Amino acid sequence: MNIEELKQRIFESGVVGAGGAGFPTNVKLNENADTIILNCAECEPLLRVDQQLMAIYTDEIISALSLIVETLKANVGIIAIKAKYKEALEAINNRISQYPFIKLHLLPDIYPSGDEVMMIYEATGKVVPRGSIPIVVGAIVLNTETVLNIYNAIIKQQPVTKKYVTITGEVNSPITVCVPIGTKIKELIKMAGGQRVDEIGIVMGGPMTGILVDEDTPITKTTKAILVLPKKHTIIQRKQATTVLNIKKVMSVCSQCRMCTDLCPRNLLGHNVEPHRLMNALANGLTIDSSAFLTALGCCSCGICEMFACHHELSPRSLMMDCKAKLMAKGLKQTVSENSRVNPQRDIRAVQTKRLIARLNLTQYNNIKAPISKKEIFVDSVEIPLKQHVGVPSISNVEEQQLVHAGDVIATVPDAALGAVIHASIDGKVEKVTQNSITIRARGGRE
Ligand code: SF4
Ligand code: SF4
């Protein structure tokens, strides 16, 4: 297989980054890569999927990584994983000698070691220049589940129709399940034995970068976890704050201590991400120096500034992300700078995961294992979003009342646009097609 065939098969199978970003994987693959990094950091607290898949589907994942390395004619594939994922590590160590181009790199237990730029630095010692992309330093980073999806696409000719999701927190039986894409969160909570407190907030994703959702939200190709927390939990409260409230709080109490900037992982790698300067500009209405606003363009949204660094519980991350979205909507991009200088204090300023979990008030949920279920799961209906990836929304090619089988293409990408093909995730009848989603009811499912 050559690189074009590999990319085409991955595109046709609808593979996108399963770690949360959702970037179409075929677009990431590039013949200039010398290093392919398998990201098994799973650095967000309480997430379990990647370490569990690595322990179970070790051969599938390593063989797919090896195939990518060989097809791209790269020099090496690196499995980057934390030493604390003992089961996965044992499985890797038992097999890695069979793959001559694959090596292992143990990551420190710090957050956010799964961030692409941070991971490349940890695994290769190279810094992706500010405003640039990993391929300029010869690296491609792929999430563990993404590589399993590539294996399924190439070896088993199976498109992406299912997703592994961990349901944890205030549920009776935390669990990791493999469900059809488009399954509603309320179904997942039932699979985890139901909620165990009356009033809950639901986070889709990890506690740091996840978003608040309701129980009717469907899971997508990028959903790694559903966190069920008491409604009054700090994480739920913090995620409910509005931009106006966040700015008012900055105006009242930001002390310009700089801790948000001093602990920012991107800043520590030499990128000019300086949340304290944006906070100062917002608090004081300083618009004369636009560089304070442009600093937001390099923010990776990790949340260290907001959930760990700020002693006043202010929200630099949220404000950086608001500012970044507005600048990008106006077509502004980061300028590329080759002059990144890694801060010599980076190692001692790194945030240990255990401390982060304690700060987030999540220690009580951290020892929960959420075992992976091997049971095949059937659902009555799915609502499949047409935008589950970076790029333009996919366009439906099915009509209401049409019968479909799991794996049929139900939405395609407009010509030459960045996007991903979407497949039916269950056998059934198309019940509803809107601009945003396609609902399929299973044959024999409840009307
Ligand atoms: S850490 Fe908080 S108080 Fe300190 S500069 Fe940043 S936003 Fe202001
Ligand atoms: S969220 Fe905060 S800590 Fe993380 S990159 Fe952005 S500014 Fe830096």
CATH architectural type of the largest domain: 3-Layer(aba) Sandwich
Given helix and strand content, the structural type is alpha+beta
Distance between the termini: 45 Å
> Under CATH, the topology of the largest domain is which?
Rossmann fold
The CATH fourth-level homologous superfamily of the largest domain: NADH-ubiquinone oxidoreductase 51kDa subunit
Ligand species = iron/sulfur cluster
Query: Mean pLDDT, nearest integer?
Result: 95
Task: Tell me about this structure.
The protein has 4 domains: 3-155, 3-Layer(aba) Sandwich (Rossmann fold), CATH 3.40.50.11540; 162-233, Ubiquitin-like (UB roll) (Roll), CATH 3.10.20.600; 240-357, no CATH class; 381-442, RNA polymerase II/Efflux pump adaptor protein, barrel-sandwich hybrid domain (OB fold (Dihydrolipoamide Acetyltransferase, E2P), Beta Barrel), CATH 2.40.50. It is 33% helix and 19% strand. The chain has helices at 3-12, 25-28, 49-56, 58-71, 86-95, 116-124, 144-155, 185-191, 234-240, 243-253, 259-262, 265-268, 275-284, 291-294, 304-309, 316-329, 346-349, 353-359, 363-366; strands at 35-40, 76-82, 102-107, 110-111, 139-143, 162-169, 175-180, 200-204, 211-213, 225-230, 351-352, 381-385, 395-396, 403-404, 409-412, 422-423, 428-433, 437-442. The strands form 5 sheets. The chain has a 5-stranded mixed sheet with strand order 7-6-10-8-9, sandwiched between helices. Strand 6 and strand 7 (175-180) form a beta hairpin. Helix 4 (58-71) packs across helix 7. The longest helix has 14 residues, at 58-71. The model has no long low-confidence stretch (mean pLDDT 95). The structure holds iron/sulfur cluster (SF4) (2 copies).
